[in-house]
Amino acid sequence: MVELNKGKIFRTIAIGLFRLLRAVAIGVLIFSVWKYPVFKEIVRAQISKFTLPSCHVIDEAAILSQYDLSKFNEYAHNIVVESDIDIRLLFVNGTGSKSIEQYALDKVRELGIGGKNREERGILLLYDVKGKRLRAEVGYGLEEFFPDAFVGYLVHDHTRDFFSSGDITTGLRLLIRMLHHRIREAILGRAFDPRVIEMIRNRGHLSGGAGVSATMPKKGDLDRWTSKFTEEERRYYTAQPTPEAAYNKYLDWLVGGKYDPNIDLFTEASKGYMDSLPMTKAYFDFILMKKYGKKFHIAIDNGVALLYYTDDPLACPLFFKKSDRGWQMDVVTEVNNSENLAGGKYAWMYRGSGDIYTRTFIDKLVNIDNYIRIADGDNRALPIRGDI
User: Fold this and answer.
1) What value does the CA radius of gyration of the chain take, rounded to a whole number of Å?
2) pLDDT of the chain along its 388 residues, tens only?
3) Given CA atoms 223, 224, 230, 232 in this order, what sign does their dihedral have?
4) What stretch of H or E contains 105?
5) Residue 126 and residue 100 in contact, taking contact as beta carbons nearer than 8 Å
6) Which one of 107, 191, 197, 229 is least enclosed by Cβ atoms within 10 Å?
7) Closest residue by Cα to residue 67 from 148, 152, 172
8) Residues 6 or more apart from 41 whose CB is under 8 A from it?
9) 75 backbone φψ class: left, alpha, beta (φ>0; ψ -120 to 50)
10) What is the DSSP string of 106-128?
11) Which residues have a Cβ under 8 Å from the Cβ of 95 and sit 6 or more positions away?
12) How many CB atoms lie within 10 A of CB 291?
């Protein structure tokens, strides 16, 4: 009996020692990796899940799934962590006796959007499902970030297309990405130039105040934006003699205003991938604005090429492959080899592994605080609000 009690005591002590050693090991591991920002951000993201505010996206009209609601709130929260800018989306079934403009102003005050630091660094996107009306209300502290030309561009060209086709989830995802990119550009000191819109569309939706409204067309009035080239146009967008010529032809394709990826300028895998993407004219133009006029360098070797930007830390690299017809853009590799990031010091990180591009240009890759980037590209870090 005594021996049995001794055995129990021994097992209890052994279990206690094991748990202590395990806790110490975990503590040492956390302490050792905390100095690396990428691990710090992983921990920050996990902790934020327990404190994630649920008020960035308010769906009174019940048009989003709980999963989508959670993901949009998480993304908007990451933007707050990164920039201290408060983005809110509110879906309602009618505005009662109030105009949508007055209703939006009242909601900005009621919800305290962007008012935490008294600088009104917030933006409200209010969608009236019943009246099919959209209103964007920008706080005074963000008018330079989101001028009327930019907000009107989103409201009239991008959002209304997706809402009318019923693809709310995709529309919101791309909308928040556009807002996030514009925030990052503004933080880097870049003003939004409305002449870019005029160049692309020869139009600009400007208004007199710090806000824009629009009426949404009925569901089905606008479908996913697609158009087909004529045979003559298709022959114009062919594979090119150099990667730079292929890139310039790509920009030309974006300016052209037709979303038809079934051209020889793209690899076969890219054609299939791009043909499956939902697209609006505004997002098509947004891609162009992210790339147009940026300085770049092209590395060429072994029948492949890597294009990376030298004056823009936000734009991820592009990839080209040489076929028997000339140089083509490899858009699928661009998607696979670059990871978009939110809430940290970089907008993207290279993640390719084992493919021909990574093997060929391995000497171009550099580890900066555990972010894989292009060594002689623009690696300016985004200033973030601070640690958790």
Assistant:
1) 25
2) 444 455 555 555 655 565 666 655 555 555 554 455 544 444 444 434 434 445 889 999 888 888 999 888 988 888 888 888 888 999 999 998 999 989 998 888 888 886 654 457 888 988 888 887 888 888 888 888 888 888 887 777 766 666 665 667 777 887 888 888 899 988 888 887 776 666 665 532 222 234 444 443 444 443 445 578 889 989 999 999 999 999 999 988 887 768 889 999 999 999 999 988 877 666 777 788 788 788 999 999 999 999 999 999 999 999 999 999 999 999 999 999 999 888 788 999 999 999 999 999 999 999 999 999 999 999 999 887 644 3
3) positive
4) helix 100-111
5) yes
6) 191
7) 172
8) 343, 344
9) alpha
10) HHHHHHTTT-TTSS--EEEEEEE
11) 102, 103, 128, 131, 133
12) 18
b/e 52-62 (16+ beta carbons within 10 angstroms → b): eeeebbbbeee
Give 281-344 as a DSSP string.
HHHHHHHHHHHTT--EEEEEETTEEEEEESS-SSSPPEEEEEETTEEEE-HHHHHHHEEE--SS
Strands 365-368 vs 371-374: parallel, antiparallel or unpaired: antiparallel
Alpha carbon distances (Å) from 65 to 69, 113, 168: 6, 24, 10
CB 185 within 8 A of CB 83: no
Task: Determine the Cα–Cα distance for residues 89 and 77; give it in Å rounded to an integer.
Answer: 12
Adjacent-strand bridge partners of 135: 126, 213
**Residue 319's closest CA among 329, 311, 327, 310?**
329
